[in-house]
Amino acid sequence: MRIATYNVNGITARLPVLLRWLEETQPDVVCLQELKAPQEKFPEQAIRDAGYKAIWHGQKSWNGVAILSRTEEIEERCRVLPDDPEDLQSRYIEARIKDIVVGCLYLPNGNPAPGPKFDYKLGWFKRFSQHAQQLLNEGVPVVLAGDYNAIPTEKDVYKPERWTEDALFRPETRKAYHNLIAQGWTDAIRKLHPDETVYTFWDYFRDAYGRNAGLRIDHFLLSPQLAPRLQKAEVDRFVRGWEKTSDHGPVWIEIQD
Asked: Which residue, 146, 165, 176, 257, shows the most beta carbons closer than 10 Å to its own?
């Protein structure tokens, strides 16, 4: 099973890119973030015509997450984190697909930091971590995939000295990420590529993609029941070079059935 995560940076504007990528690579399961579309504007028919079932949690202008499945049924479990059933920001959706629980997330950016947006980021991260622990307690195969807006280490960012005060790289964010990992999760990319330079995001400015001046902020975390089944973990970096594309590249893993 190939599971992918992709921050599309606006599903309406990037729909041709998304459909082209789906046709060329045919992942089995896809987690999408930053839909930037209200619930009723999700392009369900176009996704179905591409061969995918879908569930989504939209929001006007910002945020929004979705899970697509090519062959298996999607059994939705929840679309908000616990402790805030009226969560105004559409940042999480979770489903069971075959034998795997798939959590798709879009963690807040948090800039400018410090400030209210950074406080919200850390608060959301705390709630997410609590939910992640509950998922581990279930003892089932789980993948938590998405845009974490967290740069784990210096090797995950081009010129880390320029990012020391950014919300994605501040010590509080890195600590939250590493505390999450310490629950027992496996970072799929680093499991298979422990020392390589791997980026998943390249800014639109200053020819960041051309210079490979990127960040690794899109992550797959695997539960102990799923980690031994990990076979591949890669970034479709070439998609970032397409016309009118997202500033993220799709990231994917292959899991042994």
From this structure: 146
